[in-house]
Amino acid sequence: MALVLGIQEGRSFYLNNTRVELERISTPTRATLLIHGPVNKKVTIGPNHRTELEPGIYAQVGTGSTIDQIKVALEAPRNIKILRDNLYKEDY
Q1: 10 Ramachandran zone, left/alpha/beta (phi>0; psi -120 to 50)
Q2: Which among 27, 21, 16, 26 is positioned nearest to 5, based on CA atoms?
Q3: Which residues, other chains included, contact 43 with Cβ-Cβ below 8 Å and sequence gap of 6+?
Q4: Which residues pair with 78 in a beta bridge?
Q5: 90 Cβ contact partners less than 8 Å away, ≥ 6 residues apart
Q6: Could you tell me which residues come within 8 angstroms of residue 10 by beta carbon, excluding any fewer than 6 positions away?
Q7: Cα distance between residue 16 and residue 50, in whole Å
Q8: In whole angstroms, what is the distance from residue 4 CA to residue 61 CA?
Q9: What pLDDT does residue 87 have?
Q10: For 21-58, what is the HEC assignment?
Q11: What is the edge-to-edge ordering of all strands in the sheet holding 51-54?
């Protein structure tokens, strides 16, 4: 089962301590994520296939996305902590 986050351009979420920023929403079905951390990289996600963000952690665009906000469907092992940026800052 996937975790779905609604997110706007410029906002972030965290996979444990790795920051993932929504850089750009190209269309309601395509977006670019920046993964900050030891290995900085840029990935494009869409609705038809899962994209690996980190080993064993996958993302794709969820249904109901718009040009203002996409829904990111995340699949990750249960031991991975996933937090929105505001909750991460409160937690740490």
Answers
A1: left
A2: 21
A3: 32, 33, 35, 51, 53, 59
A4: none
A5: none
A6: 21, 22
A7: 20
A8: 9
A9: 82
A10: EEEEEEECCEEEEEECCCCCEEEEECCCCCEEEECCEE
A11: 3-7, 70-75, 57-61, 51-54
Q: Which residues are CB-contacts of 55 (< 8 A; sequence separation ≥ 6)?
A: none
Q: What is the pLDDT of residues 38-73, one digit of tens each?
A: 889 999 999 999 999 999 999 999 999 999 999 999
| pTM summary value | 0.91
Closest by CA position to 54, among listed 33, 71, 28: 33
Q: What percent of the chain has pLDDT over 70?
A: 97
pLDDT for position 92? 62
Question: pLDDT-based confidence at 79, cuts 50/70/90?
Answer: very high
Please state, in angstroms and rounded to a whole number, the distance separating the CA atoms of residues 30 and 59: 12
